[in-house]
Amino acid sequence: MSAEDTDAGDEVISTTEESGPADAVEPPRRRSPMAALRRHLGAVVLVVALVASAGAAAAVYFSQYRQDRETDAAATGAALEAAKTGTVALLSYSPDSLDKDFAAAKSHLTGEFLSYYTDFTTKVVAPAATQKAVQTKADVVQGAVSEIHPDTAQVLLFINQTTLSKENPDGSFAASSVKVGLKKIDGAWLIEKFDPV
């Protein structure tokens, strides 16, 4: 083996020895603050978005959907009373006072139901009440508000109705239940739907 070979071998060994430990132990790298911020940017954006959406939801709830300010116990009581009074007026009439009875009923109605009631009483109820001396009297036995919003309400009523006529002077009795749809117009609850259930 020549001196040149030995020197070359030493160089190879030396190079191998120097590179081995350098590969095994890597010195720690310093991370810049910007790199750390960039790494956590997704989490920061997500937290900001969640906070913003929670704030928006709270604002919508308190400004639009929180109805207890306009649908408190007094509003519920007023809607229930309007449904009861309107229903009694709607279902009670006498042949001696038809015009007055129908006018009283109409004062509690609104919308398409008012149009329907006007047409129905003119074409069906008035002729029958006059010819057959039909007289009806309704009483609300029980009622409850099932749904209420600032301008609309649904009320369930249980009704007893007595009907007298020439054909049945002793009278007939009927018990029924109705779902009354109310709409608030100019501060007054008016009946816009009247559905037997």
TrEMBL record:
UniProtKB keywords: Membrane, Transmembrane, Transmembrane helix
Annotated Acidic residues bias: 1-10
Region described as Disordered: spans on this chain: 1-31
Superkingdom to which the source organism belongs: Bacteria
GO cellular component: membrane
Segments traversing the membrane: 40-62
Cell compartments where the protein resides: Membrane
Protein name (record): Twin-arginine translocation pathway signal
Species per Swiss-Prot/TrEMBL record: Mycolicibacterium psychrotolerans
